[in-house]
Design a protein that fits this description.
Elements (H helix, E strand, L loop, with lengths): L2 H25 L13 E5 L6 H17 L3 E5 L6 H8 L7 E6 L1 H8 L10 E10 L1 E6 L7 H10 L5 E4 L5 H13 L4 E4 L3 H10 L4 E5 H9 L3 E6 L25 E8 L4 H14 L3 H9 L9 H22 L6
Parallel strand pairs: 1-2, 1-3, 6-7, 6-8
Antiparallel strand pairs: 3-10, 4-10, 5-8, 5-9
């Protein structure tokens, strides 16, 4: 073989090897694009410190920091039913250094409020952190122990069975409204400012039922202070496998709580995919998975595309329900 041909062949092989290394690097969550991230990443949480979503966000941020070799700094921006933080992040540079931690209200708020941002146009969904199952629980003195009992009692005494939620327009309130629509029943909503006062009144007998997120309900269930009726997820959950789903009696019923992470809309696809890989790896970390499980939270890995599809589906679902029922944020 002539010297020039050997030289050309060597150059082609060297280029192929280089491209292979680059491809492996960009596909791995251990390294970002063009050196990203080169400085700390800010994760904006639209809730006060100490709540359920804030706790999960901090657990995820700590693990993300180890993967990306940069601090992931939590910045709490509560207020406006999460709208203040959302609007802030929507207007930040789309460079991957400011992210927004979102929950179910991200897809409910557009149907209830006039927002100065678009959930669909101003954000790039990155990853679903976890599903947060919702559950119906009752006071132990109430003679309702199943979905069938609840439907029968509600039809017998329409508008008289009271249920607590942690606020009008909250995910649990929307779950309750969906339940009433799909079962042709009428319950009496008693909204509280937060889950703790509502659950305290439930245990004390001031309300009959509560539609609750799973974390605070589990502690009351384990201490035998409330009776679990049903979870609102499509399938039974690992944290309470003996509790049936509403869907076992009402086919097609599903109302889930969830947490996720999004970025400003123009964030590069490479950065979005990189962060998706990081977060999906983090939520499968054995230590974090154990903490999630202890709180009843469940992992459901999604790509940016499937997370986007989920957000769009939730937006349509809750918009239709709000229109049908006529829910107002100040109800």
């Amino acid at each position: 073989m002539r010297r020039s041909s050997v030289s050309l062949l060597f150059s082609v092989m060297l280029l192929a090897t280089s491209l292979s290394v680059v491809a492996q690097t960009t596909a791995s969550p251990s390294s970002g694009m063009d050196g990203y991230p080169k400085r700390p990443v800010k994760l904006v949480v639209p809730y006060p410190p100490g709540g359920g979503a804030d706790t999960l966000a901090r657990l995820v941020a700590a693990k993300m920091a180890l993967k990306i070799n940069q601090p992931v700094v939590i910045e709490n921006k509560p207020g406006g039913n999460t709208a203040i933080a959302s609007e802030y992040v929507a207007n930040q540079p789309a460079d991957g250094y400011t992210l927004l931690y979102v929950a179910s209200s991200f897809t409910i708020n557009p149907s209830l409020y006039k927002l100065r941002y678009s959930t669909q146009k101003d954000f790039a969904p990155i990853a679903l952190v976890a599903q947060v199952p919702l559950i119906i629980i009752s006071n132990k003195d109430v003679t309702i122990s199943s979905t069938t009992d609840l439907i029968a009692a509600a039809k017998k005494t329409p508008g008289q069975i009271t249920y607590a939620t942690f606020g009008t327009g909250s995910p649990v309130h929307m779950a309750a409204e969906l339940f009433q629509v799909m079962t042709d029943t009428k319950l009496l909503h008693v909204p509280y400012k937060g889950s703790a006062p509502g659950l305290t009144d439930l245990v004390g007998g001031q309300v009959n039922l509560a539609f609750s997120s799973i974390e605070p309900a589990l502690a009351l269930m384990r201490s035998d202070k409330v009776r679990p009726i049903a979870v609102t997820t499509a399938r039974r959950i690992a944290a309470a496998p003996d509790v049936p789903t509403v869907a076992e009696i009402v086919p097609g019923f599903e109302a889930i709580g969830w947490n996720g992470i999004v970025a400003p809309a123009a964030t590069s696809r490479d950065v979005v995919n990189y962060l998706n890989a990081v977060i999906n790896e983090v939520v499968q970390d054995p230590e974090l998975a154990a903490k999630f499980a202890s709180q009843g939270v469940e992992v459901d890995l999604k790509t940016p595309e499937t997370f986007t599809a989920m957000i769009n589906s939730e937006l349509s679902k809750w918009a239709a329900l709000v229109k049908k029922v006529g829910i107002h944020a100040d109800d």
